[in-house]
Automatic annotation (TrEMBL):
Taxonomic path: Eukaryota, Fungi, Dikarya, Basidiomycota, Agaricomycotina
Protein name per UniProt: Galactokinase
Keyword list, A-Z: ATP-binding, Carbohydrate metabolism, Galactose metabolism, Kinase, Nucleotide-binding, Transferase
Nucleotide-binding among keywords: yes
GO molecular-function term, one example from the UniProt record: galactokinase activity
EC number(s) stated in the UniProt entry for this protein: 2.7.1.6
Keyword Nucleus on entry: no
Any single Pfam family the record assigns to this protein: GHMP_kinases_N
UniProt-listed InterPro entries: Galactokinase, Galactokinase_CS, GalKase_N, GHMP_kinase_C_dom, GHMP_kinase_C_sf, GHMP_kinase_N_dom, GHMP_knse_ATP-bd_CS, Mevalonate/galactokinase
NCBIfam families tied to this protein: gal_kin
Catalyzed reactions: alpha-D-galactose + ATP = alpha-D-galactose 1-phosphate + ADP + H(+)
Length: 544
């Protein structure tokens, strides 16, 4: 299983990229980073951690419903060069001190030292005969992370946190993280839906593990690194579904990754036809996800969860009043999925049964319409609470106490149509990939991508006019299919293009999209580029 493999450590770039052409494309950037590190710190780095960004080929807004998704790493990445320093003997407090720099001039130097802080926890009495609560003082590692503003070093600190709290027991006085110097260089455009933040956190986690000699830890699998990175990213204030970190860590060249989150994290590489190239085009519309979360991302999460509860009740699926059941769990319970079975493509059941069960739930989505709802305009808060079968207090506690949402109507029916049909498209897409290479295969994959985009636009309302224009232009310019990738409301689209068509496709896209016309050189290649499924995160170890 891909998630159970160890983190790869390379001493040769050729092995890392597994392709001479790709190695040559990237070698200069690696050399420049090493030279720059030497200039700043007076010695060579000992390690370079690499973590790529990702695109989602298909399966949008369904990771938080716990359905499988099909992302892959892109070639663009974050590189973090680092080397431990010997701590001065008389400077005990310098253990763990970090000097972090970034090759991008807009990001200034940052220095920080983790502290051990006493943390008070309330524990229940140890035995039943000793009721009550005891206050226990435990030490925890602490680093200041300012989540009120976007700072590049917050992602570095977030990675450090996970390494400290998972690999250096605070109570152990001998457990001392090394002081270290690091230099970060990235060619992933930020804020464009390619998950540069997940790449930063994964890269930073790996750099701290490497410098502290923890990479060979027997329990450190790729899956474990994903779990730590998801936890770490929450420290920067993002509650993501897990897709981005899994894609950055587990991806393999030439394959998209079928990632499931239920019953447990599992990742199955699925080969794309050899002629298939993915082209990323940035709409250059910046979606400020944090600001719009209450009527966009977070609202979709709530609409999806409430819809799952209402359909579960309608279908007679068992659930308790305090459970935020997801659509994937409803589907599993309906099909009497066995817990603890080996997670494969169908999770705890055969793939064909999973598809049937999703279709069964999809057939019932009309039940999510309000009394007078005709065109999918949604239901009021009062009607939604009534349909959920909960009291207003219980509903608020379960669905609204942890997240801020704002809406007049809740579009439960249309959201369900998207989520369930998209889950089926993902399974279909990966089945078609098994058929190998042919024109028909490429066309069928493209059709699924187009349907996915239509569903994102029509049912999930997560596209925008520019993304619709760009995906339409891509289809007219020769793509088999094109769809928005990532959360949407701006950011990038991904198109499936035949290898021999890529050059003319890129030209047509540049000429056809107004916002590309004035872009040249690096600015253009950041906004419009071809990529193949690339390898996941790794560490390069310097041997001389
Ligand atoms: P972006 O915003 O593209 O990184 C977000 C979520 C994903 C997933 C997609 C929609 C974060 C960090 N990531 O992706 O988990 O839900 O939207 O498919 O919020």
């Amino acid at each position: 299983m891909a998630a159970e493999l160890p983190i790869p450590i390379y001493t040769n770039l050729n092995d890392l990229y597994a392709n001479l052409g790709t190695t040559l494309n990237h070698a200069e950037r690696w050399n420049t980073l090493v030279e720059e590190f030497e200039k700043r710190y007076g010695r060579k780095p000992e390690y370079i951690a690499r973590a790529p960004g990702r695109i989602n080929v298909i399966g949008e807004h369904i990771d938080y419903a716990l359905f499988g998704v099909l992302p892959t790493a892109v070639e663009r990445d974050i590189l973090i060069a680092c080397a431990p320093r010997s701590p001065a003997k008389d400077k005990e407090e310098a253990y763990g001190e970090v000097v972090a720099n970034n090759t991008h001039p807009k990001y200034t130097e940052s220095q920080f030292v983790p502290e051990k802080k006493a943390h008070s926890s309330m524990f229940k009495g140890i035995s039943d005969s000793e009721p009550g609560e005891d206050v226990v003082h435990v030490e925890q590692w602490h680093l200041d992370i300012d989540t009120s503003q976007l700072r590049w070093e917050s992602y570095i600190k977030a990675g450090y946190y996970g390494v400290l709290n998972n690999f250096f027991a605070p109570a152990d006085t001998d457990a001392k993280p090394v002081p270290m110097d690091m230099l970060v260089s990235g060619n992933l455009p930020s804020g464009s839906g390619l998950s540069s933040s997940a790449a930063m956190v994964v890269g930073s986690t790996l750099a701290f593990l490497a410098a502290n000699g923890k990479l060979e830890d027997a329990n450190l699998t790729k899956g474990r690194l994903v779990e730590i990175a998801v936890e770490n990213e929450k420290r920067v204030g993002v509650n993501s579904g897990g897709m981005d970190q899994a894609a950055s860590v587990i991806s393999q060249p030439g394959s998209v990754l079928y990632i499931t989150f239920y019953p447990k994290l599992s990742a199955t590489p699925t080969s794309l036809p050899p002629r298939a190239v993915l082209v990323v085009a940035n709409s250059l519309v910046v979606a400020d996800k944090a600001v719009s979360a209450k009527w966009c991302y977070n609202l979709r999460v709530v609409e999806t969860l409430v819809g799952a509860r209402i359909l579960a009740r309608h279908l007679g699926v068992k659930l308790d009043d305090k459970e935020k059941v997801t659509y994937r769990e409803v589907v599993g319970r309906l099909a009497e999925e066995k817990k603890g079975e080996e997670a494969g493509k169908g999770g705890g059941m055969e793939e064909s049964r999973l598809k049937e069960a999703i279709q069964l739930v999809l057939n019932e989505v009309d039940h999510l319409k309000g009394r007078d709802e005709k065109d999918g305009e949604g239901v009021s808060m009062e009607e939604m609470i009534e349909l959920s079968g909960l009291t207003a207090d219980a509903f608020n506690e379960l669905y609204l106490s942890w997240v801020e949402v704002e809406a007049d109507n809740f579009k439960l029916y249309r959201r369900a149509k998207h989520v369930l049909s998209e889950a089926l498209r993902v399974l279909e897409f990966s089945d078609i990939c098994q058929k190998g290479e042919s024109e028909t295969v490429l066309q069928e994959l493209g059709t699924l991508m187009n349907e996915s985009h239509k569903s994102c636009n029509d049912e999930f309302d997560c596209s925008c006019p520019e993304l619709n224009e760009l995906t339409e232009l891509a289809r007219q310019s020769g793509a088999y299919g094109s769809r928005l990738t990532g959360a949407g409301w701006g950011g990038c689209c991904v198109s499936l293009v035949a290898e021999d068509e890529v050059e003319s496709f890129l030209q047509k896209m540049k000429a056809g999209y107004g916002r590309f016309k004035d872009l040249e050189g690096e600015a253009l290649s950041e906004a419009l580029f071809a990529t193949r499924p690339s390898s996941g995160a790794c560490v390069f170890k310097y041997t001389e």
